[in-house]
Model the fold of this input.
Amino acid sequence: MDHSPNQSRPIVTQTTTRAQRSTRTLRDAILTLRLAPGARLVERDLVTQLGVSRTGVRAALQSLDAEGLVVRGRRGVFSVAAVSAEEARQIYEVRAALEPAMARLFIERATAAQIAALGAAVMRAEAAARNLDAPAYVDAFGAFYAVLLAGSGNEVARRILDTLNARITYLRHLTTQRAQLARQLRTVTLLRGIFAAVQARAPMLAARRCAAFVARSARFAL
Done:
């Protein structure tokens, strides 16, 4: 029998793909609140609910544990993590420290394509708000900050915020669920203000608007 490496690669790829798919499915269920904070995550139930294998569920739970989206109880049973007020406060403190600096660097270093992508994310957020499409609204904000961080050219800061990305997205879903349309549209207006400062090549103004944006988000979330 031929045990050449070329024959084994597809199996590894298929296994990896299944694990990644299971992780994405479970992450999406948590972030969109189909699985509520505190909900127990029993493997056999998740296999049925999410249509993934038991092996895939175990791999997904391990990955999401590392992201802080699930927690393991004393008996080894996972549950959906809840965000405490103290944890939320600390997350917003990190954002307040880093995001204004990233806005300044973005103006210095971003390409024309990245600036256009930033504006497109603002338009997506406004359209999603007017269509009452909460998942698309949160996705648009995620896209805005992903472009902002990439265009800043600071990989260290991007990696720091990447480690918090799942929790930040989780908070956005929670707060979006509580926000009225008028607040969402006001939030988009403030996001558009950050973009306007970018277009005007005004780094200090962009930084101030980023800081004010994060502070307002923190007040509402807390």
About this structure: The first strand starts at residue 40 and ends at 41. The chain is about 80% helix and 5% strand.
